[in-house]
Write a structure and sequence with these properties.
The strands form 7 sheets. The chain has a 22-stranded antiparallel β-barrel. A 5-stranded mixed sheet has the order 1-6-7-4-5. It has 734 residues and is mainly beta. The longest helix is centred in the N-terminal third of the chain and has 16 residues, at 3-18. The protein is 8% helix and 54% strand.
């Protein structure tokens, strides 16, 4: 869709909505003071999301409960402007993009939980090998465009904030359990209480499965995840004019998943998309994440508040997985073998277990530890001016440190009768023995002015970052500094932005914004950061019984950064590389309606469409052929041009039926258009029945028509999406 078509749609919306002006609607200015946004939220509710000067979406508790998804990809489907590709079928390691940013490991968006950066090392190693579990979230907040420059360092596409289970105002709890296909089970328990000056909440979540892929001798290809969360809140001066509170949050996550980077060749995928080659038998992720979060709130008045967060995130993981195959002294990466099996028939025979050879499989222990810690403070003051105008001034400051510690090795395995046995232990540190770290100071100032019809929100962000890497050498496991090699890169940048909104009527508004997009560079001295100029223009409207928004955006990159990720077929060094100029533009459409809304029956409906045009504007060869040979005009890989999602529900006081249909357009994993992933259309259905006021039966059917479809060719070969699955359970609230 071109710009002329967009403006025609916009003009038609204006004409239609002008006929439906509701003068009795309450002016949003008078509501702003009534909206209390908690310290862990950035939006707080749908009202705030719809009244920002930039695009935003608030995925509420009720929306999350419709399907009780455990897969974040499925939960985010209904939000326009979000691109992603799946990997494991359960959403354990999502690859999310907002407005065409590189989706690999969700490394180009700001991911937060309770308002705090949650990626293992957001600056020095941003790939999200840990991702918050959607099953324990109260809400999900998505910011796009100029409305998200407060939440760097990644400001090109957007930010996602996960709002965890809140402490209840009185004694409340929930026990839910479910079971279904592939021996997949889930147990979720939460309870808490509030007293005069003390509140608490405790939560436990278990999610496990045997997996839907088949490996020899019925070996488990699934996972087992356990999470514990605890929150304590003390109201220090609840009854005084100046109110103070202190909240402590503890969260622990552990995961064992038998997941692999090894996919399938074209021929084998056609025969059985759920096959796992015997050469991946030992592949396993062992991960552990811990968070400590202390939040201090100081409320001087209804208009003046200071919120400070003290946070520590620790993450360690060892993804033990097949990396190379050796045949006749020729060692080849699995991605290379799978993409060209005709060139490497001997290597393929080993992967399939058809050829027994000693020391033919190299399994790398991708052993890494991460630290992310810091202090951040937000000061917010708002007041009313002349003619009842609303003014809001917000200042934020964050001091942050993170690091990634690599201490990796590679073991060799024999394969005999399709089963693997250990051959030779590798030398510790021989496949990576380094620490990458980042020190950053970030600050921002945002000002919002709103009168009867007009809102303007200018702001500026400042980032000062020092990125370092200390490499101790492959033969120095004791790290005695004898072979130490160090590099360092320092960058400082101002990131300005401004958003505008004009209310034509109570049923129609137009908004626009422009801001600088930014992603930090790597630690190599002098490497350029990723920068872009981002523009959006949209409208929010209400026509008859429909509410919606239509948004056009354009992100013009002066320097796009790619990353050497094993997840995309590279060596996994995470070294960024310059990809030159690029252009991403597109269209986002969101429509919602209550087709029928009465005391007895509700039929809510939603429709979202995302058009993304993403292309390179220069020629180059990408590192390790991650994108292949790139020519001016080639599409950026992994980004589908078209995505569509629609859902409809039938709700009564005791019964709820939900149908969701999602279309994901074709995309390529190489810039030249080869290695294509075909489009697919998936239907999900859920049924919820209230036996009593506090007891509910819940069930869902995923991939209703059992569509067998590929979701990616990365990291190494074709990978299937989730097949048909039936899940049922019960929920008890007290």
């Amino acid at each position: 869709m071109n710009k002329k078509t967009f403006f025609l749609i916009l003009f038609c919306c204006i004409l239609n909505s002008q006929k439906n002006i509701d003068e009795k609607a309450k002016d949003s200015i008078t509501l702003l003071d009534e909206v209390i946004i908690k310290g862990n939220s950035i939006l707080g509710n749908k009202f705030v999301a719809k009244n920002r000067t930039g695009a935003a979406y608030y995925l509420s508790t009720n929306e999350l409960a419709e399907f009780n998804y455990t897969d974040i990809n499925r939960a985010l489907n209904k939000i326009s402007g979000i691109n992603f590709y799946e990997e494991d079928g359960f959403g354990l390691r999502p690859n999310i993009s907002i407005r065409g940013t590189s989706p690999e490991r969700s490394s180009k968006i700001a991911i937060m939980e309770d308002g705090v950066l949650i990626s293992p090392a957001p600056y020095s190693a941003s790939s999200a090998y840990y991702f918050p579990s959607i099953a324990r979230m109260n809400a999900v907040e998505v910011l796009k465009g100029s409305s998200q420059i407060q939440y760097g360092p990644y400001t090109t596409g957007g930010a996602i904030n996960f709002v965890s289970t809140e402490i209840p105002n009185s004694f409340k709890g929930k026990i839910s359990t479910s079971y279904g296909s592939f021996s997949t089970g889930q147990s979720h328990t939460t309870f808490g209480n509030s007293y005069d000056n003390f509140r608490y909440m405790i939560e436990y979540l278990n999610y496990n499965s045997n997996g839907f892929k088949s490996l020899g001798n019925n070996l488990n290809t699934g996972f087992d995840i356990n999470e514990i969360t605890a929150k304590l809140r003390i109201e220090i001066s609840k009854k005084r004019k100046t109110k103070q509170s202190l909240e402590f949050k503890f969260h622990h996550y552990d995961e064992i998943s038998n997941e692999t980077y090894l996919g399938l060749t074209e021929n084998d995928f056609e025969k059985n998309p759920f096959l796992r080659y015997p050469g991946s038998e030992k592949d396993k992720m062992d991960a552990d994440h811990i968070q400590y979060l202390l939040t201090y709130e100081l409320n001087f008045s209804k208009q003046f508040r200071i919120t400070s967060n003290f946070y520590f995130n620790g993450f360690k993981r060892n993804w033990y997985k097949l990396d190379d195959v050796v045949f006749e002294e020729s060692s080849q990466k699995i991605s290379k073998v799978i993409s060209s099996p005709e060139k490497y028939p001997g290597h393929m025979s080993i992967l399939k277990g058809d050829l027994d050879l000693e020391n033919s499989l190299k399994v790398k222990a991708n052993n890494r530890k991460y630290i992310s810690k810091g202090i951040q403070t937000k000061i917010d003051y708002h007041w009313y001016g002349k003619n009842n105008s609303f003014n809001d001034l917000e200042f934020g400051l964050r001091v942050h440190y993170d690091e990634e510690d690599r201490f990796q090795w590679e073991d060799t395995y024999n394969i005999n009768n399709s089963f693997m046995s250990l051959g030779v232990y590798g030398d510790k540190g021989s496949q990576g023995n380094r620490i990458s770290s980042a020190n950053s100071i970030a600050s921002y100032v945002m000002y919002k002015y709103k009168n009867n019809r007009f809102t303007v929100s200018p702001g500026i962000r400042f980032e000062s970052i020092k990125l370092s890497r200390d490499d101790f050498g492959e033969s120095n496991p004791k790290r005695d500094f004898s072979n130490l090699s160090s590099i360092e890169n320092k960058v400082s940048v101002f990131i300005p932005g401004i958003g505008l909104n004009y209310t034509l009527s109570n049923k129609l508004s137009i908004f626009s914004g422009i801001h600088k997009g930014y992603s930090p560079p790597g630690s190599s001295e002098g490497q350029k950061a990723e920068e872009s100029i981002n523009f959006e223009l949209g409208t929010r409207f209400s026509v008859n019984n429909f509410n919606g928004e239509v948004i056009f955006y354009s992100n013009n990159y002066s320097n796009l950064l790619g990353n050497d990720l094993a997840a995309t077929g590279g060596f996994g060094e995470l070294d960024p590389f310059n990809a030159g100029e690029a252009l991403v533009n597109g269209l986002e459409i969101l429509l919602t309606s209550n087709i029928i809304k009465s005391a007895k029956v509700k039929i809510p409906f939603s429709f979202s469409y995302t058009l993304t045009n993403a292309k390179f504007l220069s020629d180059f060869g990408s590192t390790q052929d991650i994108w292949g040979e790139v020519s001016d005009g080639d599409r950026i890989p992994y980004i589908p041009q078209n995505q569509l999602n629609t859902s409809i529900s039938y709700e009564t006081n005791i019964f709820e039926f939900n149908l969701n249909a999602n279309y994901n357009g074709k995309f390529s994993t190489l810039a030249d258009g080869s290695a294509e992933i075909p489009s697919y259309f998936i239907f999900d259905v859920s049924f919820n029945y209230n036996i009593k006021k506090n007891i509910s039966l819940k069930s869902k059917l995923l991939n209703l028509f059992n569509n067998k479809y590929a979701v990616s060719r990365a990291p190494a070969g074709l990978r299937p999406g989730h097949p048909f699955g039936f899940y049922a359970g019960v929920e008890y609230n007290f």
